[in-house]
Design brief:
five-stranded mixed sheet; six-stranded mixed sheet; 11 helices; alpha+beta; 438 residues
Amino acid sequence: MNNDTVLTLQVLSSNIFTMDKLNFLLSGDKRKFERDIQKLISLNKKTFDYLGIDAHGQYDDSFNFFLCLRSSEYSGAVPLRSAGTGLVCGYLKVVGRYGEDIDGVLPLLKDEDFTPEFDNTMLIGSDMAVAPPKYIECAKYVDKYVQADRFQWQKFTNRKITQTKPRNTDWATYYLKSYDPSNVFKYPNSINELTTEHSEWAALKYVLSLAISELRAGTTPKSIKSHYADIIRRLERVCFGDDLQIVDHIDVHSSDPIIIKELKAIANLILKNTSDIRCAWRIDYSRFFERYVQYIFAQLAYKRGYRAFNNPHFGISGQKPAWALKYLEPDLVMIKDGDQVVVDAKYKSHMYNFDSNFTELHDVFRDDFHQVLAYSSFSSAQQKRTIIAYPYKEFKCYATTVHSSLNECENKTFLIGLPISKAAIIDVIDSLNKILLY
């Protein structure tokens, strides 16, 4: 699949696609372009809905018909079916608006309880950089293991036993022990027997134990856990004993049955912590940026000796209407020796419009500013500090201070521009560290 088979859209934006951009998804008959667009939208409704994309056809002022796509807060990738053949022949990718290094940053956020959502019912025939989580391969392995177990794969194995007559005897061992009269008729023999309990199956059992552990992990969706709960309980009753063989690779032999080759292939992917699946995925970009900011400030808090609290709830009680808030939830609060810093992450373009003065920018920033001031009101400090973090191509910091005319309180708010890049993280943390010294 080459670049011609990819449609690209930015988060929270819209774009139009003309006939020349959609050739690979159409029937090839220019006279049917309008009908092809409607069929394309119908065939791909599931994938468009998955990314929250509004798709419709419309005419421009010159009565040219085109496909219009409007994205939501979701970034990700989905397969696209052709209006000509009905087969998957491309994919749509929704990317960030500011050139983010999402592929480098996403693996860092696993400890922040943030991973992409995947749907393996929508496969993408392309080597996408974002691979599905390990539990998908583990689920495949359990399914394949159940099938292979029914196959009753037998192999000859060499077993050592003590018999009263010589037969494939280990004479060196016999001579060492036969000095004792009681061992004269005890021959250490080797026998070959056909069994299902051979070393290769023991290795596959070991991988099964890894797969089960992953399926029970906290990062595995509840729906997956529920689906495999009974299967796992049954497998644990009959499969596990003292014969697990720890391995880091399982050889695939040409003589292996097909079902065993398939099982071994998945086993090696699990052992390597990789996947051969490429399927539809998505992330909520606002949550992604929030988790990224929390990751950055967690590193900073550790460096400075602060305690960091992600998404603490400030409860609201008393007589409230049905539409009232139940709690306030800042993205991050850092505390050290009575000093408190409140951080709020906003995936908005304010830093890219720093010198602009649009009414919309003014109104949106006022809401952001009031919000972070409300969060900081619970600090007893006279000198409060708050941070609003926005995405930007490089690190930027602007300091503003709110003074109270009624008392000695003031709130210093830093407007921070953060590059979303793994390579920039160390420099960003050093820059933020200097801000905390203010």
